[in-house]
Amino acid sequence: MKKVFYTIILSCFALMSTAQFTIISEVNAPDEGESWEMSNLTNNMGIAYNLDDKTMIGVYKNGDDYDVFARHTMRFGFVCVEAPTTDMMDNMDIGFGSNINIYKNLFVTPMYLMPFKEDSTGVREGSFKLGVSYKI
Q1: Which pLDDT does position 25 carry in this prediction?
Q2: What is the spatial distance between Cα 56 and Cα 109, in angstroms, rounded to a whole number?
Q3: CA geometry: angle at 101 spanning 95 and 84, to 5°?
Q4: Angle in degrees, CA 84, 42, 95, rounded to 5
Q5: CA angle 33, 39, 42 (to 5 degrees)
């Protein structure tokens, strides 16, 4: 049993040493009549793990809850899937986005997300999101 435990720990350290992490944040526009504050940038922050050059999985704080996401980069941008940790299959969003390199490892990430399922009225209205990410 000790050998299995040590093997798992060693493989986790090997995985972490070759990994590239990304800090992400979603920019939220202030409500009408309010000014821009730092909280508009820090309310929805998270961390992602790059499995390889094209695939990223992560988690970020969305208000009081946490959402998980996965992105796969293609030649023209990335395809993404986002879902909250509760009622994941009912609230899943799919979309498309792009990473625009601003400076070295700092990126602006515009993306369009659409619900995977229709709501109770039969509408699937998408939303545009703007994010900032920094590759560590």
Answers
A1: 86
A2: 14
A3: 30
A4: 40
A5: 145
pLDDT tens digits, residue range 39-85?
777 778 899 998 888 999 999 888 788 899 999 999 889 999 999 88
**Range 51-60 burial, b when 16+ CB lie within 10 A, else e:** eeeeebebeb
For the entire predicted model, the pTM comes to: 0.76
CA dihedral over 125, 122, 120, 46, signed as positive or negative: negative
Higher pLDDT, 49 or 19: 49
Neighbours of 91 (CB within 10 A): 15
Place of tokens 């799919």: 94
Query: CA 53 → CA 19, 56, 135, distances in Å?
Result: 10, 8, 12
Q: Is 107 helix (H, G, I), strand (E, B) or coil?
A: strand
Residue with the two structure tokens 């796969």: 72
Stated as kind and residue range, the H or E segment containing 2 is helix 2-18
